[in-house]
Amino acid sequence: MMKKYRLYVITFWIIFVFLMVSFFGIFYSASVGYLGEMPDFRQLENPKTNFASEIISSDNKILGKYYFNDNRTPISFDEINTKTIEALIAIEDERFYSHPGIDLKATIRAIVFLNTRGGASTISQQLARQLFVGVRSRNIFQAIIQKIKEWVIAVKLEKQYTKEEIITMYLNIYDFGYYGDGIKSASNIYFSKEPIDLKIEESAMLVGMLQNSSYYDPFRRTDITRNRRNLVFNQMEKNGYITKKEKDSLKNLPLELKYNPQSHRRGLATYFRSYLRGFMKKWTSENLKKDGTKYNLYVDGLKIYTTVNAEMQQYAEDAVAEHMKNLQEEFFRQNDTLSTAPFRDLKDDEEERIINRSMRRSERWRKMRLGGKSTEEIEQSFEIPTEMTVYSWDGEIDTLMKPIDSIRYYKHFLQAGMMSMNPKNGHVMAWVGGIDYKNFQYDHVMQSKRQIGSTFKPFLYATAIDQLKLSPCDSFPDMIHCIEPYKYGNPDAWCPTNSSDKYGGMRTLSNALANSKNTISAQLIDKVGPKPVADLARNLGVSSNVPDVPAIALGTPDLSVYEMVGAYGAFANKGIYVKPVMVTRIEDKNGTIIFQSKPETKDVLSEESSYVTLKLLEGVTKFGSGARLRHAIPEDERNYIYKNIVTGYPFKFENAIAGKTGTTQNQSDGWFIGMVPNLVTGVWVGGEDRSIHFEEIAYGQGATMSLPIWGLFMKKCYESETLNISKEDFEEPESLNIIIDCSKIKGKELEDESEDINDLLGIGN
After folding, report:
1. What pLDDT is stored for residue 740 in this prediction?
2. What is the distance, to the nearest Å, from the Cα of residue 150 to the centroid of all Cα atoms in its chain?
3. Which end of the chain is less packed: N or C, by CB atoms within 10 Å?
4. How many domains does the chain have?
């Protein structure tokens, strides 16, 4: 009997030792990689995780992100709400702060009860699986191997990192669904707030989703997700983080989501972000990491600090939306009975060419061509009614429409481009490239170049002032002036007429610019020559073609909003051109600065000449085509345009404003560029094609199409307590030899000027 007992004991110890040796042997084998690849010290030190690159505004708001599949932005432990951490520990790992990565008690419980009373995976193990092991295999043997590797890596992680770092890493890496990679993105997407600002019920919902975010989906499975959240409350009470009373109260709360989808086509400053993507593509191709590899915008977690102010950007987008919706309604009304709508002044074959060109540029054409369809098959598909969703100012509309008709429908929409810049440092504060990036992705700030009309005239006047020392008070006859053939290369005589077709008398330079008199412009360009004017434009940052011909005096060149705002900035900056800046610095994911912008400046005009030009442009807003910024016609005396089209009227600005309207032939383009001492803002409005326009100038002029956007925007900016937009006068130079106060020498002509406020009648350009 004794021998038999001894045999049992020996057998037990042999089995026990065998099991222990096997247990440690398996762990050792896993740790050295015999059971599959294991992370080395360097990988544990710097686990490979894809991070989205962030676009950060000048007022420290996230404008957007660049990412492929991982919209992940890492945050520190201090940026995580305390209740989030408590909820996490309560539901996922009660003994997190006391175990070394493996919870022995939970493991034994899971083995004995076959996981029916809770799992055994610690937060450290879950992190190990997320970082290095991957999705659990359905093969039992492989699953066991994976579990062992998780244990080994979890222990290593516990040695390598603090408990706080492990929690932070875990919450940063988890995919919460809907591009919510990590707790920061998830908080922004589900609740439109930062993690530190989450309420306890919001923290509990997100923590509950950690078990399976696709299953606990708050949009598709609201009740199930709510029940999971309430289970988190139960565990928080059990672990002493909340009282029973708090638990009972919290469990009655509904899921209150504030969905904020994040994508490249939604959110704030979409057109700017699109431009920035091109900027970063070029930058990453020219700047390498220390190891010689290229930066990847979509996975390297770069922080791109921009000049765009989120508050101002929102005001700009709101102003564009408010006016353009109003203007579009009128445009639809006026085109309701037009058989060729939205096109005017086109022959049938020209209209057909526009539609065919748009058809071949469409996404439908591209996809069908890639699918191997012939041209005939593709063209036929455009004539078949198709279910589709189309854009409208009142929201997307589900409809049945021929694709060819949808092309014509989208052509009806007027477009807008707007850019705002601080002239002192060149910082671009706001950028609105269109009315809706999802449906109209062509950028009308940088990409689009349109005829600029009278907004070019300040370049001519500034040249004349600089060369001839002309005063705003100098007078010229308002009569048709012809430049003889071949004087400046023109084969024929050039004799421009006024848009009003009215002539006679004398006009001061101030009055002539305020009312965009082409007769005076012809005389000035004849005196100074077209080349100095074109050279001035080029020195002011205009890179587009400005030919050395007299016609540029009337604004015939095609330029971008970006170029025009940058050039006008020099007038407000004492004649010094500052190249527009969009990015101040770039940091890598560790916070190391890898790019710092340097201002590019050029002395172009004398301080005196730029100031005199500013005073001329102030006259435009006082008694010229921009006067509606200041005057206030009584409501019962307003005409149809003021009541229905000039959105936001009356503006009633009283501070110094220098500006210029511009209207091109047939009202195809409407411009307004306005300046105050520390902000220059340019606005363009027009159709996608030049044949898309209002019939009457009263509707299609810059003062009607573009100026209201500027007015709405500036009113919002002035109401802000943080933007500090100047209401002061433009700074006068210490030495000013040119007379600018015409009241001292031209009293009668000033009376004429006061009678010439055609803008009050909706006339002018």
Report:
1. 86
2. 42
3. N
4. 3
